[in-house]
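Quick start: what a row looks like.
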Amino acid sequence: MTRRAFVAGAAAAAIVAACGRGRRTAAPSSSSTTVDSGGGTSTTTATAATAGGPASFVANGSRTGTGVALTFHGSGDHTLALELLAAAAKASAPITVFAVGTWLEQQPDMARRILDAGHELANHTYTHPALARVDRVGVAREITRCRDVLARLSGSGGEWFRPSGIDHPTDLMLEEAGRAGYRVSVGYDVDPHDYQDPGADAVLSRVKAGVQAGSIVSLHFGHAGTVAAFPGVVSALRDRGLEPVLVRHLLAS
């Protein structure tokens, strides 16, 4: 997606947000490659989820295009979140925010700020627990309560789910995500660990070291180093002929 297309997409964001939460787009079958901490790779095949069945899992999009999805864990300091959104607007770079439900409830204006700027909102559980330690009833509650907050504040429960406290969702999580209406659980193949506050230079260098066409990058609101690194991340992508895109555009390609 070009910068001109992003600007045009921002004007249409209010229309997109009005879609009902029951509307989901199935992801095509694909292979997703994850880079591990040792430099190796593993490939996971994601099959299109059937209606009411388990969600599928993807860690990246097509390697043949130019898109890269910059995704954010939506929680933390309100001021730093606004600073990140301002940096994204200045760079004409769309982002996908996997929001924590309680965070959105505490600042209900944030959902519309994100969508009206042309970005994308998705589900990152209601309270952000270590989801692998939660039983089935609790997992279902975490997913559906966040979905309902998203729907109440934005008109849509969002297309995507990302579990909290775990890189790869378990079968139980995929089953409950599917029951809640999510067809795809979105992971990532680039993780600069910006939540550990290593500093802007480290965040930038780690993204540059791992990113490639089709990558999904995991970043976080609420961290000053991430805000400072963001313009450099976008510039580094464009220097390589890559372009930030929303998850829905990455997975549609």
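That is the whole record. Residues 67-252 form a domain with the TIM Barrel fold (CATH 3.20.20.370). The chain has one domain: 67-252.
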